[in-house]
Amino acid sequence: MNFDDLLKQGQLKKETTGKDKLAEYIDFAENEIEAAKYNFPKYNLVAYKAAYDALIHAGNALIRYYGYRPTQKYTHVTITECVERVLGDKYSDLVGRFKRMRRKRHPLQYEASFLASASEVSESIAQAHELVKKIEEHINIQPTQRLF
């Protein structure tokens, strides 16, 4: 995978990440998906943010799988760009949803403004879950089994 331009622009840094840490990112992603499902439909904003955060964690795992990590410069844009480059056209619909979620999350996070129907939030959660699963398959890392 070629990330030379993102390295040059300071958006990525080389870093080795072990399988245990990758599994932690996937655990976080799975937990966020469950939180999104639990909070929907009563708390749409919370559910939407949780689904988006799941994608950020899974995307971070994907980048780290390839020996890089996002820097603080355009972190979320970098993660969506890398997911698109790695997964390619095969999952363009799911990656496209991820990018739209990022754009919708920005005003939610920084301007206290959010415009999305309940059906859009529901679809976002479902597609976020599907993309997390595709990333898990791609890096061949499953969430750890925790016994409480």
Main traits of this protein?
mainly alpha; single chain; Four Helix Bundle (Hemerythrin (Met), subunit A); 2 strands; globular; 4% strand; 148 residues
Task: Give the overall pLDDT as a whole number.
Answer: 93
According to DSSP, the number of beta strands is: 2
Based on CA inertia axes, which overall geometry fits?
globular
Low-confidence stretches: none
> What percent of the residues sit in helical stretches (DSSP H or I)?
55-70%
The helix/strand class is mainly alpha
Strand content is under 5%
Instruction: Work out the count of structural domains.
Output: 1
Strand order of the largest sheet: 1-2
Terminal CA distance: 39 Å
The Rg value, from CA coordinates, equals 15 Å
In CATH, what is the class?
A: Mainly Alpha
The CATH homologous superfamily is called Nucleotidyltransferases  domain 2
**Helix and strand string, N-terminal first?**
HEHHEHHH
Q: Say what the CATH topology is.
A: Four Helix Bundle (Hemerythrin (Met), subunit A)
Main sheet overview: 2 strands, antiparallel
Number of helices: 6
Q: Which CATH-level-2 architecture?
A: Up-down Bundle
Task: Please explain how this structure is put together.
There is one protein chain. This protein has one domain (4-138): Four Helix Bundle (Hemerythrin (Met), subunit A), CATH 1.20.120. It has six helices and two strands. It has helices at 4-8, 19-39, 44-65, 75-87, 92-111, 118-139, and strands spanning 12-14, 68-70. A two-stranded antiparallel ribbon has the order 1-2. The longest helix is centred in the middle third of the chain and has 22 residues, at 44-65. It is globular.
